[in-house]
Design brief:
By secondary structure, the chain is of the alpha+beta class. The chain is built from 28 helices and 31 strands. It binds zinc ion. The site of zinc ion has 4 residues, from helix 4. It is an enzyme of class 3 (hydrolase). InterPro entries: Aminopeptidase_N-like_N, Aminopeptidase_N-like_N_sf, PepN_Ig-like_sf, Peptidase_M1, Peptidase_M1_dom, Peptidase_M1_pepN, Peptidase_M1_pepN_C, Peptidase_M1_pepN_C_sf. Its EC number is 3.4.11.2. Its cofactor is Zn(2+).
């Protein structure tokens, strides 16, 4: 058990939103000088500081990671006693209102395993400053409402660091004695320090240009290791498409003469929108058909767009404080989702986004770490880069767009960008801009910013007779979440229609009903047929919906709904009702699902990508989310039973679909992608049916494919089952891609996600594989992150999976607290499981919490999960 006294005395303080105060000192200008060296980099910072308002407070500059000043000078004079260190801050008493403060520090990038601040990756030096990494580079007011103009001089060994990049434009560069050289960069746009970036190393650029709508030519560069240049083509095409899209859809043009992207292999998350110098995890840049799947290509386009879009939603208008994070992240996720929808199939993109929301955000919103999209407090801000801030944040702005209409919304974003250009803004500023531009009243809508928890909505339709009237009864309740016992009704926009039970046509078209009370009744007149309710079209609100629609109604909708998302959703609901009923021990009838899947598979009007999505069973995790006291074995058993029945009963249809979707030459197009997806889905159902030739088919697909999508699809099916071909394919895959880190990640993941028994032991062994390292976040995620979402293996009744993940958390925390903290939520959901597993999970959390010297990151996630 945990020693409560130790834990309490060790509790780091929470930062609260209501405590926000404007900065005492501003820093309009900063000049940085870097003497670059992997072991010891010297950083000289000259800050022009200005007192803001009438106060007698000293200048407080944040430091981190044990930063200490080598020297401190004020207005050109070195001080020896007029400064002090308070915690990690450098505190200086300043007599006047305007001063020049110069500090010199020495840092060690090669020894920095946190991947925050300045660090070394594969011979490169690079930075990551969001949220609070800049303080590890130099002493500075590390808060997003202090905006400065940056001048950056870098000097280093010309052979080790031939390329020297920073934000803005390069003003100067040249040779120096002793094989050294320098470069000078200047960013004319004032920015918060979290957007500062520097890269030094041996890089080559894929160069291109983009001409803006006002006729300015922008030089684009994607910087990678020379050997990787051929893999940057898709990222470059995506960048140019994003630039054109933001001009067309949001009226936003790029503002510097240069836009650079650098790919690095050690990176804590996806990518970073540093002004004019985005830095990316290499997995979101590098791709070719042989090494990257369709999903990888799509993700690259989405992340390149996301970071580019931040230039306006994040950089030109930034956040006042980190409680406003969703202001830039939620909005920018919506923008990248819209972009990707426009590039391919909007319906399939929406299905993918909703699946991601349900996989990551709904569980978060229902667990111990639930928080509103604008949180009220945090211990470590890095823990708040969550699916709630990002994905629910995007859903909330999507609802605003629906309520205001496309034109009202665009008027709102125009006003927001114009009004707050160059400022550090708040979520409230965004809402007010929306109201001012459209005339709408969003008073009640603000509850979406303050209340956590996924609303539960019930919908029930009653009818008298054809030609008569239908009554729709709606109700909502927002569940209790930590610190929020009482909730108020929110405005929930529901797009819906009533389909004629015979014709399948939407009677009276599509309606938008805003459910803004606990209960509401809506009536529909003049119906010519008995109606079937189709509701939450396009997932118009991020809710859990309960309806009293029969299996027959859902099957009908899955064949006739005009809204593709609702059509998909009807099938999902039918499957979910069947599986949840079975998991609760009710009677099992697979026939309606089998019939509905047959209809979908054989409907010639549907495209392959949609079919592949529609016939997929809900994930084990999502089924578990509908249950109390989850028994993952039971969930897996009922799901496997339905999969096997679907496989067996529809074996001819799966063989047909498999043959029809047969690949020709590789092509990256929505149609070709859909075919590949359907092919691997069909293959998995053939394996589930126990078709005698499943392994042969899978191995043949593995060997014959000319692209990673088909190869990985086959490998996944093989990895999940036992057959001689399994070992052969895994060994071949490993040999073929030895040394290609991003592909070897896939090799680890295929095994970590395996549904076959013995996976816990296999994963423990893989953690001892020479290619495994906890120091690289991609590799850590590929094995441990994947394992922690594998419902069967992670929840092995022995508790061995829990112990493995807890050991990893403790090991990684010493190197990289952010990466360690990300592994906590899987254990943190212990309350959702049956008592045996719940107590094993809780024991592991308590074991972690009892270890002295935990990072704030892990401490916050674990203590909240136990609290
Ligand atoms: Zn972002």
């Amino acid at each position: 058990m945990l020693d409560a006294a130790t834990a309490v005395s060790a509790t780091p303080a929470a930062i609260r939103r209501e405590d926000y105060r404007p900065p005492d000192w501003l820093v309009p200008e900063i000049a940085l000088d870097f003497q670059l060296d992997a072991q010891a980099t010297r950083v000289t910072a000259r800050l022009t500081v200005r007192r803001q308002g009438a106060h007698g407070h000293p200048l407080r500059l944040d430091g981190g990671g044990g930063l200490l000043p080598v020297s401190v000078s004020i207005d050109g004079e070195e001080l020896h006693d007029a400064w002090r260190i308070d915690g990690e801050q450098l505190v200086i008493d300043l007599p006047g209102d305007d001063h020049l403060v110069e500090t010199i520090v020495q840092i060690a990038p090669a020894a920095n395993s946190t991947l925050m601040g300045l660090y070394a990756s594969n011979g490169l030096l690079c930075t990551q400053c969001e949220a609070e990494g800049f303080r590890r580079i130099t002493f500075f007011p590390d808060r997003p409402d202090v905006l400065s103009r940056y001048t950056v001089r870098m000097e280093g060994d010309a052979a080790l660091y031939p390329v020297l990049l920073s934000n803005g434009d390069q003003l100067d560069a040249g040779e120096l004695p002793a094989g050294r050289h320098y470069a000078l960069w200047r960013d004319p746009f004032p920015k918060p320090c979290y957007l500062f970036a520097l890269v030094a190393g041996d890089l080559s650029a894929n160069r291109d240009q983009f001409v803006t709508r006002s006729g300015r030519t922008i030089d684009l560069g994607i910087w990678v290791r020379e050997a990787d240049l051929p893999k940057t083509r898709h990222a470059m095409a995506s960048l140019k498409a994003s630039m054109a899209w933001d001009e067309r859809v949001y009226g936003r043009e790029y503002d510097l003469a240069v836009f650079n992207i650098v790919a690095v292999s050690d990176f804590n998350f996806g990518a970073m929108e540093n002004k004019g110098l985005n830095i990316f995890n290499s997995r979101y840049i590098l791709a070719d058909p042989d090494t990257a799947t369709d999903a990888d290509f799509d993700a690259i386009a989405g992340v390149v767009a996301h970071e580019y879009f931040h230039n306006w939603s994040g950089n030109r208008v930034t956040c006042r404080d980190w409680f406003q994070l969703s202001l830039k992240e939620g909005f920018t996720v919506l923008r990248d989702q819209q972009f990707s929808a426009d590039q391919g199939s909007p319906a399939v993109k929406r299905i993918e986004d909703v699946r991601a929301l349900r996989a990551a955000q709904f569980p978060e919103d229902a667990g111990p770490l639930a928080h509103p999209i604008r949180p009220d407090s945090y211990i470590e801000i890095s823990n708040f880069y969550t699916a709630t801030i990002y994905n629910k944040g995007a859903e909330v702005i999507r609802m605003m767009k629906l309520i205001l209409g496309d034109e009202g919304f665009r008027a709102g974003t125009d006003l927001y960008f114009d009004r707050h250009d160059g400022q550090a803004a708040t979520c409230e500023d965004f809402i007010v801009a929306m109201e001012d531009a459209s005339g709408a009243d969003l008073t009640q809508f603000r509850l979406w910013y303050t209340q956590a928890g996924t609303p539960r909505v019930t919908a029930s339709l009653t009818t008298d007779a054809p030609g008569g009237r239908a009554r729709l009864r709606l109700s909502q309740s927002v569940p209790t979440t930590p610190g929020q016992p009482d909730k108020q009704p929110m405005p929930i926009p529901l797009k819906l229609s009533l389909l004629g039970a015979v014709s399948g046509a939407a009677m009276g078209g599509e309606h938008l009903v805003i459910l803004d009370e606990a209960e509401k009744e809506v009536t529909f007149d003049g119906l010519t047929e008995l109606p079937v309710l189709s509701i939450n079209h396009g997932f118009s609100a991020p809710i859990c919906l309960e309806t009293d629609r029969s299996p027959a109604d859902l099957a009908f909708l899955s064949a006739h709904d005009e809204d593709p998302f609702a059509r998909y959703e009807a099938m999902q609901q039918l499957m979910l009702d069947t599986l949840v009923g079975a998991a609760k021990g009710g009677p099992v009838d697979h026939t309606p699902v089998i019939d509905a899947v047959r209809n979908t598979l054989t409907d010639p009007a549907l495209d392959a990508a949609f079919v592949a999505e529609a016939v997929l069973l809900p994930s084990e995790a999502f089924i578990g989310d509908q249950l109390d006291a989850v028994d993952p074995e039971m969930v897996a058993t009922v799901r496997e039973a339905l999969r096997a029945d679907l496989g067996t009963e529809l074996i001819d249809e799966w063989r047909d679909a498999y043959a029809r979707a047969h690949a020709n030459r590789y092509e990256y197009s929505p149609n070709a992608k859909g075919m590949r997806r359907l092919r691997s889905v069909a293959l998995a159902f053939l394996a589930a049916a126990g078709a005698p030739d499943w392994a042969e088919l899978a191995f043949a697909q593995y060997r014959a494919s000319d692209n990673m999508t088909d190869r990985q699809g086959a490998l996944g099916v093989l990895a999940n089952n036992d057959a001689p071909e399994r070992e052969a394919a895994l060994a071949d895959f490993y040999d073929r891609y030895a040394g290609d880190a991003l592909v070897i990640d896939k090799w680890f993941t295929a095994q970590a996600l395996s549904t076959r028994s013995g996976t816990v032991e296999a994963v423990e062994a893989l953690a001892r594989h020479p290619d495994f390292t906890i120091a690289n976040p991609n590799r850590l995620r590929s094995l441990v992150g994947a394992f922690a979402v594998n419902q069967r293996a992670f929840h092995d009744p022995s508790g061995r999976g829990y112990r493995f993940v807890a050991d990893m958390i403790l090991g990684v925390d010493k190197l990289n607290p952010q990466a360690a903290a990300r592994l906590v939520p899987s254990l943190g959901r212990w309350r959702r499981y049956e008592p045996g597993r719940a107590s094993l999970m809780r024991d592991e959390l308590e074991r972690v919490l009892a270890v002295p010297g935990l990072s704030k990151d892990v401490f916050e996630q674990v203590s909240k999960s136990l609290g």
